[in-house]
Amino acid sequence: MASSPFADPAFYADRYPTYSRLRATAPVLQASLDGGASTATVVTGYEEARQAFGAQLSKDAGAYFADKPSTRSLHPAVARTMLTVDPPEHTRLRRLVTKAFTPGRVDGLRPYIRALAEQLVGLWEPGTEVDLVEDLAGPLPVTVICQLLGVPTADRAAIRTWSTDLFATGDHTRIDAASHALAGYMAELITDKRAHPDRSLLSDLIAVHDQDEDRLSEDELLSLAVLLLVAGHETTTAAIGNSVLALLQHPAELEHLRTSAHCIAGAVDELLRYDSPVSIATWRWAPDEVDLAGTPVAAGSPVFVCPGAANRDPEKFPAPDRLDLDRPNAASHLAFGHGIHRCLGAPLASAEVEIVLTVLLQQFPGLRLAVPTDQLVWRQSRLVRGLVALPVKL
Question: How large is the angle between the packed helices 89-98 and 201-211, nearest 10 degrees?
Answer without folding.
Answer: 130
